């Protein structure tokens, strides 16, 4: 392994020519160049990207690297690394002024130093920069101002002195029937140049019937990866089973200091691999280092800067003073003060997450929960063992957004409910997880009042399975999904059609009273209670026969709230991705059955909470051990083709 000065964070340009992501890399008038055949010539008054690490700034123009991917997150390095300073190393030719700036945790900009360049040959310069003032947050970045002649930035990087060994990583991609997505990731890694130098192995855990090995060009990609690629054929054990396989294989091989978990429905910025490894190498103590998630379909939108668990609710929330779904094209880093404050996290999603092998040895592998809450539980478990999770700015993927999925309504509702409860039993600091049981009861009730009976049923089955104890987790991980899909198939609200014309015509026996069809959200607690009581009474009344034959209305996905749907006897409701619709029909008998079980199960949970908590906590080391997981892998066998 190489020792000596280490590159921590290289200044980079976008891999592709997508104009939507340019602002995440460079601020100012910038275009890709040289122009490809058929494209318009490069504008003479714009900076021109000429390579992965270089660009040309025209005379009298100015560009800035106060951007997500190229500013240096000094606050994170100050808090979590052993470093006391960094150096900006920059190479420029032409006539230029390079001005270095920093921000405070309050988002205030401060000028630090400037360097003059005036040479036809490339000139390299360095600036030492102190990390001490960044305990609460802040960034470093620089601007390039061209003089009377163009300025060419050949390269720039943030480096550190020291004697820290270079770590290496096994990349673990869990894939299920997304062969093109998974293969595209492999192509990106194969073309990432020296990023491959820190990768020991790329492990694709393929759990589907549509195989990544059948993707067009797979053989050539495997060859380009130079023997680093291995595909593991495994029965579908969900995300927790796929990622645990990557963890276990990393430990068994004994080569890598880290495992990097990647979802199969993401597009990664390849440079993130180097940044995550460099940060983990310099961490004060072993740390989980996560990449951020951007919206794959709206690429400047950042899902979250950091996420925490609200302990009294036991639900995920954005870190203090941050927000979800921040659009950096509307409010870039320079204009978003809260992004300059260091945000600490309880966990990082496993769309991109680097975990040290030493952490795997200390706290084990994933909880065997198939999908949902596995990454959250792992981060909280690690925190309890003194291992921080650090979402690192500048390391990221673009991921299919949650808002385009019906994750909380389809079969995943079972895992969301069961796994949230188990995670709370394992880690909540409050008696009976604070407010969680009440929230759970209310959520099932809301789904039942909204005619989402399949969702309510699966949530109740999730609660029922909690009572089976920790031994059921490994035993059912390979069979539960098929069972849930069979259950859900028996509900009309789970049946979908591609077009509204495939359903009976929308008609009503009588028009809405006084034409009041639109429904506003509840205006406060008294109004919420009043509407809930009225909706509950309505659920027990007979259904209009006409509504059994004809939907009374159409409800777009954005409006599918309990206070809207509970007013109808039937409705056509569209899916989150806008491709399909379902016919919801009120069923008083089913509603009564669901509410009876909802009440009984939550009462039982309340009574047996302490006993179940002791059982799950006692079993945690065994059910997350590499040895127990290996038994599950061997028993599951390969994926069905």
From TrEMBL:
Q: Which residue numbers delimit the Galactofuranosyltransferase-2 C-terminal domain?
A: 436-634
The protein's UniProt keywords, in alphabetical order, are: Glycosyltransferase, Transferase
Q: Quote the SUPFAM superfamilies the UniProt record gives.
A: Nucleotide-diphospho-sugar transferases
Residues annotated as region Disordered? 499-529
Q: Which segments constitute the Galactofuranosyltransferase GlfT2 N-terminal domain?
A: 8-161
Q: In which pathway does it act?
A: Cell wall biogenesis; cell wall polysaccharide biosynthesis
According to the UniProt entry, its GO molecular function terms are: glycosyltransferase activity
Family designation? Belongs to the glycosyltransferase 2 family.
Q: What is this protein called?
A: Glycosyltransferase family 2 protein
Which organism was this protein described from? Actinomadura craniellae
Q: What is the lineage of its organism?
A: Bacteria, Bacillati, Actinomycetota, Actinomycetes, Streptosporangiales
């Amino acid at each position: 392994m190489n020792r000596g000065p280490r590159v921590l964070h290289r200044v980079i340009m976008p891999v592709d020519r997508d104009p939507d992501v340019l602002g995440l890399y460079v601020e100012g008038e910038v275009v890709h160049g040289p122009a490809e055949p058929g494209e318009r010539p490069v504008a003479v008054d714009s900076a021109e990207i000429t390579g992965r690490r270089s660009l040309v700034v025209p005379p009298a123009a100015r560009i800035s690297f106060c951007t997500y991917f190229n500013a240096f997150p000094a606050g994170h390095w100050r808090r979590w690394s052993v470093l006391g300073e960094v150096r900006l190393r920059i190479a420029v030719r032409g006539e230029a002024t390079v001005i270095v700036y920093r921000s405070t945790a309050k988002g205030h900009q401060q000028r630090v130093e400037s360097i003059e360049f005036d040479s036809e040959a490339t000139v390299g310069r360095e600036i030492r920069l102190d990390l001490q003032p960044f305990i609460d947050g802040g960034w470093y970045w620089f601007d390039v101002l061209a003089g009377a002649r163009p300025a060419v930035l050949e390269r720039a990087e943030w480096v550190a002195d020291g004697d820290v060994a270079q770590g290496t990583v096994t990349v673990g991609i869990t894939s299920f029937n997304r062969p093109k997505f998974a293969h595209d990731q492999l192509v990106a890694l194969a073309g990432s140049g020296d990023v491959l130098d820190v990768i020991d192995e790329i492990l694709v855990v393929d759990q589907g019937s549509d195989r990544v090995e059948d993707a067009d060009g797979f053989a050539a990609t495997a060859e380009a990866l130079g023997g680093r690629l291995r595909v593991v054929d495994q029965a579908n054990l969900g995300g927790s089973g796929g990622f645990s396989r990557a963890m276990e294989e990393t430990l068994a091989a004994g080569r890598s200091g880290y495992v990097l978990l990647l979802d199969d429905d993401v597009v990664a910025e390849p440079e993130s691999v180097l940044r995550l490894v460099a940060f983990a190498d310099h961490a004060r103590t072993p740390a989980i280092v996560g990449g951020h998630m951007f919206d794959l379909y709206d690429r400047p939108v950042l899902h979250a800067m950091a996420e925490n668990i609200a302990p009294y609710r036991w639900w995920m929330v954005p870190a203090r003073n941050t927000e979800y779904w921040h659009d950096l094209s509307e409010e870039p880093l320079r204009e978003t003060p809260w992004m300059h404050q260091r945000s600490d996290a309880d966990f990082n999603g496993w769309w991109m997450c680097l975990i040290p092998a030493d952490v795997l040895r200390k706290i084990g592998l994933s909880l065997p929960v198939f999908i949902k809450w596995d990454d959250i539980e792992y981060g909280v478990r690690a925190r309890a063992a003194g291992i921080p999770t650090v979402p690192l700015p500048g390391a990221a993927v673009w991921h299919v957004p949650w808002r385009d999925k019906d994750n909380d309504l389809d079969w995943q509702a079972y895992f969301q409910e069961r796994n949230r409860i188990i995670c709370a039993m394992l880690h909540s600091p409050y008696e009976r997880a604070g407010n969680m049981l009440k929230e759970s009861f209310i959520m099932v009730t809301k789904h039942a009042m909204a005619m989402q009976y399949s969702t309510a049923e699966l949530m109740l089955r999730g609660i029922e399975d909690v009572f089976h104890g920790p031994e059921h987790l490994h035993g059912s991980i390979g069979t539960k999904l098929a069972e849930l899909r069979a259950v859900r198939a028996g509900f009309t609200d789970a049946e979908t059609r591609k077009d509204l014309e495939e359903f009976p015509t929308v008609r009503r026996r009588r028009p809405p009273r006084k034409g009041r069809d639109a429904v506003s959200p509840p205006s406060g607690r008294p109004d919420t209670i009043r509407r809930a009581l009225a909706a509950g009474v309505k659920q027990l009344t007979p259904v209009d026969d006409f509504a059994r034959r004809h939907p009374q209305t159409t409800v777009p996905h954005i409006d599918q709230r309990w206070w809207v749907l509970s007013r109808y006897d039937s409705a056509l409701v569209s899916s989150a991705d806008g491709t399909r619709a379902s016919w919801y029909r009120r069923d008083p008998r089913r509603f009564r059955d669901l509410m009876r079980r909802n009440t009984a199960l939550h009462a039982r949970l309340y009574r047996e909470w302490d006993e179940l908590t002791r059982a799950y906590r006692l079993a945690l080391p065994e059910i997350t051990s590499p040895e127990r997981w290996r038994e599950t892998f061997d028993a599951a066998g390969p994926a069905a083709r």
